[in-house]
Amino acid sequence: MPPISPQQTLKDVFGFDDFRGGQQAVVSRVLAGHSTAAIFATGAGKSLCYQLPALHLPHLTLVVSPLLALMQDQLAFLARHGVAAASIDSTQDRDTTRDVMERAKSGELKILMVSVERLKNERFRHFLRQVQISLLVVDEAHCLSEWGHNFRPDYLKLPDYQRDFAIPQVLLLTATATPTVIADMGEKFAIAADNVITTGFYRSNLELLVAPAMEDRQQQLIDWLKPQMQPGSEAPTIIYVTLQQTAERVAKALVAQGIAAQAYHAGLNSQRRDEIQRQFMGGESPCIVATIAFGMGIDKGDIRNVVHYDLPKSIENYSQEIGRAGRDGLPSTCLTMAGRDGLRVLENFVYGDTPEYGGIYRLLEEIATASQAPDRQWEVLLNTLSRDTNIRPLPLKTLLVRLEMHGIIAPRFAFLAEYRLRYHLEPSELVNRFEGERATFVRLLVDNIPIARTWGTVDFDRLHQAGQAQQIDGSRARVITALEYFQDKGWLTLEGKRMTDVYEVSKPNFAIETLASQLYDDCLNRERIEIERLQAMLALFESESCLTRRLAEHFGDSTFDTPSNAEQGRCGHCSVCYGNSVRLPDAPLPPSLSDADFQRYATPLIERHTEQLGQPPNAQRVAHFLCGLTMPVFTPLKARSLNGFAVFEQRGYPQVREWAAGYVER
Fold first, then answer.
1. Are 91 and 109 in contact (CB under 8 A)?
2. Distance from C-alpha of 465 to C-alpha of 550, rounded to nearest angstrom
3. Is the distance from CB of 290 to CB of 265 less than 8 angstroms?
4. Cα 292 from chain centre
5. Angle ∠(318,234,294) on CA atoms, nearest 5
6. Residue 44: what pLDDT?
7. Given its phi and psi angles, is residue 295 left (phi above 0), alpha (psi -120 to 50 degrees) or beta?
8. What is the pLDDT of residue 334?
9. How many CB atoms within 10 Å of residue 71?
10. Residue 478: is its pLDDT beyond 50?
11. What tens digit of pLDDT does each residue of 401-454 get?
12. Which of 441, 466, 549, 651 is in Cβ range 3.0-4.6 Å of 560 for a Cys bridge?
């Protein structure tokens, strides 16, 4: 009997008669054993490029995805089509996770989805080494590149993971990658240029409109949207805003006008967010006013409008967000109600991620101290290190990756610093299930893991020392292996927390000041690039040439290079093609800052900082406080509760910092 063809699987399993643009080329390359990159526009069917090959490959397909919402959406689709797929994520209990692992080991699962952070877990890595993997899939693969818009440092380790787990090939998937990012991704995984498949970003059914924001932007939105929201024939709409309070305010205003709108943002609990998303997907709630927390994993074909009430974060974010409109191929409108008033908030987010020079110096001092230990090992609890250096977790992760690139540190392994257990049978009964040295070892565990009421905390140093005294191997590795075996048998529940990364200091005699200056300059350069990214977005919206063409060219799409594809390089369905190029209105100038402003708003922070930390804050900390930008040091200071926090969030950070420096650094 001849083998089933991919075309037959496409029809029998997924219910499609034909591949869509680019899908067949990707599938054929993957099944031929080539590492491949699929650069498809949002909504163009990237997921099928791994879902179908997974059914033809002999072993497991491992998918790394950045967001739980993406995993859940894709798993629901696979379940509807009878494909054996599962995820391992932080919301699961241990029994569920263990069941998924057993299904993967037995070969029952074809697809396993995880976050990139899961790959640092020593227990999960041990599990992966027991499973044969045919394909590593990296979803949202632009996160690999420092030149991409959502760079995630942990993604840089994926090429090493591919080698560690002997995975023969990789498939990279993304919707938002410029030519520079595509080249960077391909280089990291040695993907040949012939195996990079790009479908193009031009979508003829999307009308791109830019309207300068009026003084009453809220009423401007209502006037535009209300005719499309007649009861019984509402046009499904997503309205994107920058801040949570804006989402709540705009949704409330729409409801007051008879438009059934709901706010969606990270400030809502997960149950409420899931409920709103289900209502939108099911057509019960036609209009969502959301921060960018909404949309990842949304695959609703009939979204007729995507409105940017505030400026998007970048051209890449804009492309991704408008890509959720009109996936059914029918005409849809993407309206940007833009003004420069929101620009300062977006710029301040960028400035907020730049660490203090002193924090970088403190980080390097810790590494230098660790280099003096005999094994030159450095244990890192990210949240603790973030607090000690006053560097936000994401910039701190980026710095650690840069230090790897400089050859200063090298990752060795990660482990959970703390384990606790709860017995499901009497400890004496557990000991009685073994004989000889094993029984003695289990007795060692039972005697040295005291139970407080229900749970007992595992003290590895205590076990090791007790083992040495009795000439028993009480090593950490043996203890964890035994406890995991007991859990697999159902004899106890084991829980771990406080992920600890262990690095080796590879270059112990580095010059702290020189390297600190270099890393700080790197951070400032990154800051400059992100600010330029915002300026490029403004230039797009103020374009005097076709918006759609400008957008396509940004992503290296040559659709408009041939007049046969678009008349004289124009799409005919954007603001500029309609003769309405715009100049975004400037934000109103705020009043000048005064001595009284500093006394009123900055003094509460200065007093508390001096009282609790023994010294006044520098200008950078004062500016962060006044602009509402969080820092780890603000948590113990309870700075958010002080009068003055975020009072200047609509002002430009550089101006506030320069003004503050005139008071605190003179």
1. no
2. 67
3. yes
4. 12
5. 35
6. 74
7. left
8. 97
9. 22
10. yes
11. 889 878 899 887 777 788 999 999 999 999 999 999 999 999 999 999 999 888
12. 549
> Which one-letter amino acid corresponds to residue 204?
S
Residue 147 has pLDDT above 80, yes or no: no
- For the chain, what is the mean pLDDT? 90
Helix (H) or strand (E) holding 637: helix 634-637
The topology under which CATH files domain 206-338+542-569 is Rossmann fold (3.40.50)
Burial of 376: CB neighbours in 10 Å, binned 0-12, 13-18, 19+: middle
Is the CB of residue 88 less than 8 Å from the CB of residue 101? yes
Residue range 168-204, pLDDT digits in tens: 999 999 988 888 889 999 999 999 999 999 887 888 8
Count the neighbouring beta carbons within 10 Å of the beta carbon of residue 166: 10
Percent of the chain with pLDDT over 70: 96
The pLDDT tens digits for 268-321 are 888 898 899 889 988 899 999 998 767 665 778 899 999 999 989 889 889 989
Strand-by-strand arrangement of the 305-308 sheet: 206-212, 332-338, 305-308, 237-240, 287-290, 261-264
- Backbone torsions φ then ψ of 493, nearest 5 degrees: -110, 130
Nearest Cα to Cα of residue 228 among 332, 312, 327, 308: 332
Which two three-digit tokens encode residue 482?
């035994």
Contact present, 247 and 264 (Cβ < 8 Å): yes
Domain ranges of the chain: 6-200, 206-338+542-569, 425-490, 595-664
CATH C-level class of 6-200: alpha beta
**CA neighbor of 413 nearest in space, from 476, 460, 484:** 476
**Cα 292 from Cα 663, distance rounded (Å):** 37
Tell me, yes or no, if the two domains 6-200 and 206-338+542-569 fold the same way. yes
Are 172 and 136 in contact by the 8 Å Cβ rule? The answer is: no
Residue 380 falls in which region: left (phi positive, over 0), alpha (psi -120 to 50) or beta: beta
> What is the arrangement of strands in the sheet containing 492-505, beginning at the earlier edge strand?
377-380, 492-505, 409-423, 455-457, 451-452
